[in-house]
Amino acid sequence: MSRHIDNFKQSYLWYAFKRDKVAIASMIVLCILVFTAVFAPLIATYNPYDPINTDVMNSEIPPLWMEGGDSAFLMGTDAQGRDLFSTMVYGMRISLLIGVGAVVLQSVIGITIGLISGYFGGKLDSFFMRMADVQLSFSYLMVAIFFTAILQAAVGVGRFGEIAIPFLILVIGFSQWPQYARTVRASVLAEKKKEYVEAARVTGFGAGRIMWGHIFPNTLSPILVLSTIQVANAVMSEAALSFLGLGMPISRPSLGSLINSGFEYIFSGAWWITIFPGVLLVVLILSINLLGDFLRDVLNPKLYKG
Amino acid sequence: MFAFIIRRFIQAALVIVIISIIAFAIKQNVGDPVRAITGISVSAAEREAMRDQLGLNDPVFIQYLRFSKDALHGDFGNSFFYKKPAVDVILSKAPATIELVFVTSLIVIGLSIPLGVYSAIYPKNLFSRFLMGASIVGVSIPVFLIAIMMIYLFSIKLGWLPSFGRGELVSIGGWDTGMLTLDGWLHLIMPSVALSSIMLPLFIRLIRSEMMEILESEYVKFAWAKGLTKHRVWFVHAFKNTLLTVITVGGVQLGITIAFTILTETVFQWQGLGFLFMEAVERADASLLVAYLMFVGIVMVGVNTIVDIIYGMVNPTVRITGVK
After folding, report:
1. What is the pTM assigned to this prediction?
2. Between chains, do A263 and B148 touch, taking CB under 8 Å as contact?
3. FRET pair for A226, CA 20 to 30 Å: which of A53, A111, A248, B164?
4. For residues A199 and A304, which has the higher predicted lDDT (pLDDT)?
């Protein structure tokens, strides 16, 4: 393990990271946010899922520093009388969980298809790539909106709320695999021609072992860059779906559903229910995107454009 | 070239068939047509007779054939909420979305080309670096959040712009346009700016990176060596090839724009297709959902096919190998 750390310390990646103030800052912000999300029960002052902490009499209390603020609620309360800060912390936890889950799923699908497509080529390859083309032309968000909308119409809003988390992971994961498949396929095509693959084949290794054991490790840097950007995309998609009322229910809100619920109250002056979760969402996505940009500049992989 | 176009058309037709299968599946699973017709106070036997009469007990494949035959005639059934054929509802709402997308594309094209080209020519310039920073912030702000913040600022705080609806409309031969009245334009400002906020950064970055790559290429170096003026090299030699990529990616982006119209229209209650779609979801209006899916599907497949063919015309390598 310590050998790996030493290796990393001598790498160009670490060298570039230490000199990039923006990357360091966004890394720190991201670490704080992830830490907050993981340890949400310890950090949040209330448990927003516990009905004991929900009192309609407390609804729409402005933040502490404004007139009418309550010292019990740092950032005020939402329309249901929940402490906004705690609800946001829990909401970010859900947003991140869905974002990361969806990326894990899409990377597994995308990498497998990309490896198979690139390594075997032929009919299988053109079939998968046509499928990717078609799906990309519809845009992942459109596909995700459509499938969640249909499922919600089919099972009803109440039951949908119970299965929302796994379903959102599935839909966002399945709607974004083409980016991975294309990127991995492009790297496989480049790697396949190299001598080490030839050597492995001559040694008599099977296709599976060559694909996963030999080629796959050499496609990791584009995958790393893509994954970073895709987490931001997945969090954004989840927020968009929840904002449309197709994602997390308001009883277990993600950041998107909080923004949606606050939007109804913005005309009556309760701006904080929308703006605070909104700012948190933007900071989260921006820090991931800035890191992704940094990785792309440093590792400079060939990514699929568009 | 001819073979290439034929191949593209076959592919487009295949995709539309797949979309129609999905649409058919939706129609089969969302809502019950017998219930919609009869209401609750009808006995089970009568229901069964009705199912037979409507052909709902036929094999699925035959039902699909019937569905696609109707669909080819533009018949997706009646929207149960509007009590009108779903296609008519879609067509009456389409102008709103088309106007929104049209104004948005004008903004995006009008701003992204000069800004992208400028930041590619002077990448180290302070303004270019500001532009790159601003564009990554722009990419990171969800479109609905920009829309909400604009409403809060310009409608609630300042009271300058209307926050919802399309305003005063003028009907020209069934096309309700808001582009002929001042009120209509005032209503159009915020939705189109919000919608372009997501496309603009993407296009600026795309044009910049593409243009920078081309400025490094051999033929541009050759153009410099010939002693051409810098404007000729930039705008005639380099920019022309940049546009090629922009056209292809632009076609793909149309799909994303349509997805984002759903978000924008929801925030501004813009009476277009996206708003209609969300209403149909809430009401489980199956015919309308199916009609929307087919409409959007055909538009996207059509645009992509046209873009591919144009791209094939200007770039021979595409049509010869058939792979991008």
Report:
1. 0.84
2. yes
3. A248
4. A199
